[in-house]
Amino acid sequence: MLCICARQADYLLGSFFAVILSKAPGTRNCGGWIWNGLLTFRAIKTILYRIPIKIILRCESLIKCALRRRKFEPIVQYCRAFCHRGGSKNMSFAVFADGSANLPGKMMEGISLLPCEYTIDGNPYTYLGDVDHFDGHAYYDELRRGRRVSTSLLNAQVFISAFTPVLESGQDILYVSMSSGISGTYNAAVSAAAELMEQFPERFVHIVDSHGCGFGNGLLAVLAAELSRKGLGAREAAKIVDEEVPHTCQYFTVDDLGFLKRTGRVSGATAMIGTVLNIKPILYGDSTGHIVACSKVRGRRKSIEALAEKYREKKLDSPQQKICISHGDCLEDANTLASLVRQITPDVPITICQHEPFSGSHVGPGMLGLFFRGVER
Question: Is 194 part of any domain?
Fold first, then answer.
């Protein structure tokens, strides 16, 4: 334990100096270089795989007490993100996703999550991906008050820093990305994978374009982790997961068309008319990964019923069926949708949780999404 704590101390101390340098005048870039160096430091492998999260949290609390007047929260969040590993010793290959996967803790086994960054009125935040600890009510209240949220993609260096220690340890990697149709993260991951496979020619790195977001890529990451635990090789698993992409259905509706207008999904005139007439679009992720409308209804209740009807129409009767519902701080509506879905398939368990903040900023409070295994999109 003393040895482990010493390694942690080295890492957290280095992180502290990176923060100090990043805040000092004229040394912002220097701090960034040091931080990137820390992520690729060989000892990080031990931190990633062996250090109990309880010790990390204890180290955080001690540092917070000592430096409570400094704005170093992002660096602490990164420490937590890279130490909170879903990986297991029984995994035949490593599975990665990011915070957009919207996974609650019970579904994260065997999956390593990379943090996502966003800003609210220019103030930076880091979302680690564990939706169980995401305060959706507070977040969506910020959106209701008109706060402006912007998101940033994960760049290639993030993937290189996270993947390199895993490849050095002798494991292949499968990363499930948010749709290339709505984010540049997929292309950044592909670029990083190409570079890493040149550096590690004996290893295999595969990037899955989920053509989805939220549970749309989270369910594929869960499948990949299940295949890894069964002992399948990364190449065989990659083929299975890629083939499952068109069967991962995702339908959702929104309560406020203004958020779709801000992201260019609907025109200003359409948003205004739709709001006046109480029109609610039913949207889905198509076969190219773009968000498109498949129908429109009037009123919230009818939009919830329309989602349930899409499940009835598209579902596959399969023992591997998983049903997930995510919501933008509208739990009552989510429970109503779950009740309607249970009338169709009473024995299939349903997971309900808040919709993550990364893509949630584009659909707003009142978003209600239904994710399941179905016929091809």
Answer: no
Contact 328, 360 (CB under 8 A): yes
141-182 confidence digits (pLDDT tens): 999 999 999 988 899 999 999 999 999 999 999 999 999 998
Residue 325 lies inside a defined structural domain of this protein: yes
Q: Does pLDDT of 205 surpass 50?
A: yes
**Look-up of token digits 């990083």:** 192
Secondary structure class of 209 (helix, strand, coil): strand
Instruction: Please compute, for residue 151, the number of CA atoms within 13 A of its CA located in the half-sphere on the CB side.
Output: 20
Domain-located, residue 285: yes
Q: What is the pLDDT of residues 328-374, one digit of tens each?
A: 999 999 999 999 999 999 999 999 999 999 889 989 999 999 999 99
Last residue of a domain, one of 39, 66, 84: 84
Cα(338)–Cα(352) distance, integer angstroms:
8
Of 175, 241, 163, whose CA–CA distance to 207 is shortest? 175
Which of 61, 84, 107 is the endpoint of a domain? 84
How many domains, in total, are found in the chain? 2
- Is residue 99 within 8 A of residue 116, CB to CB? The reply is yes
Q: How far apart are CA 372 and CA 315, in angstroms?
A: 7
Q: What is the strand order of the sheet 205-209 is part of?
A: 111-114, 94-98, 173-177, 205-209
Model pLDDT, residue 320: 84
Structure-block tokens of residue 263: 């992201």
Structural domain contains residue 2: yes
CB atoms within 10 A of CB 73: 14
Q: Say how many residues make up the chain.
A: 377
Contact assessment for residue 298 and residue 282, using Cβ atoms and an 8 Å cutoff: no
Host domain of residue 260: 246-373
Enter the DSSP assignment of 374. Answer: B
- Output the average pLDDT for the chain: 80
Average pLDDT of 184-208? 97
Q: Residue 348: CB partners within 8 Å, gap ≥ 6?
A: 321, 322, 323
Q: Grade residue 72 by pLDDT with cuts at 50, 70 and 90.
A: very low
pLDDT in tens, 13-34: 444 444 443 333 333 344 344 4
User: Can you give the CATH number for the domain in which 285 is found?
Assistant: 3.30.1180.10
